[in-house]
Amino acid sequence: MVIQNRWSAMRGSTEQAGFTLIEVMVGMVVAVIVVAAAFTILTTTSKTLRANEQIVDTQQNVRMAMEWLARDFKLAGFGNPGVPLGNCTNAIVPGDQNPTGVDSGPDSVQVLVPTTRTSGSNRWTLLVPTTTAGTAQITLQSGAVADMVSSGLVANQSYVSIGGSATAQVTGLNASANTINVAIPPPLWFQQEDQVYLLQCIRYQVVLPPDAGNLCGGNAPCLTRGVAGGVGPTAEAPIAEGVEDLQLAFACDGCVTAINSGIPDRIIDDQNGSNSFDQADFLSNVPWTASPLRPDKIQLVQVALVARQSKNDQGFGEGVAPVGSSPLIVTSDHTLPADSTHRRRVLMKTVETRNVGL
Length: 358
Description:
Elements: H1 2-16, H2 21-75, E1 92-95, E2 108-115, E3 135-139, H3 144-150, E4 159-162, E5 166-169, E6 172-174, E7 179-184, E8 196-207, E9 222-226, E10 237-241, E11 243-252, E12 298-308, E13 328-331, E14 334-336, E15 344-352
Antiparallel strand pairs: 1-2, 2-8, 3-7, 4-5, 4-8, 6-7, 8-9, 9-10, 11-12, 12-15, 13-14
């Protein structure tokens, strides 16, 4: 009787061990759901992080490009020699993509700006002061003239400005003696450490795929900056990747004959007769070649930049979803076509020119 009870107890214990088929199947289904959910979360998180990184990079690129443009527009015309310098017949030379109507591509612009080096042993400053008797030659810090040559200084072609007060053509130079031959008339004189600037005609342009000239280094589109047709250190080079559009509009003073007889009066020309300053006072699709509609009358520059992500983006979710698919109106005269694989960022800024016309 005792033996039989033990056997019954052992058999009952054995019958209670393990899982039924239904339990196993339910467990597998739950496990699959948990793994699928974890995989979805992992995929979504990874794509979100990647997309956010690209968005941040895009924003940084467009802001950096805007800083370059704004700085050069503010300096445009500094030390203007009053003669054509390279392709710069004026301090600002607008290059509207289509001056006669709606644009089908980005604008470009060329700007006369100063280049200098303010620090280091080879800084571009005077080593020896000049006198009121006039100057035929200036002496710079050791290594400065050689550095200027590598930056584009050429005898009988380049112009330099000393502190923005005196501008003269370079008629000769001696890199080893750190001297530059210029003609500064009396009674102008300058002190030791006064800054010397090399005036250059710089072009900004957007290079779109397929980038036949390889200006973007295989990363088109991009915004380039440099001397048009220049070589070496002065050649056009990319300063911001992903920039696919540049649109420029200009507000002027004295550029329309019907307004104050075309005479500048320190008031932006009221192009639409609204008796107030508004968007209609900015001009685009203009050749800027017929007097008084000349670039030296430009007082404000409105810059619109569009940058896109450098790599294709398929959305944040696990599946493939189009992004940024609608057309983008950049300005009143240019609309970018839809792009379903790249997010875009638009940045606009109005810059006041300080030296145009000087």
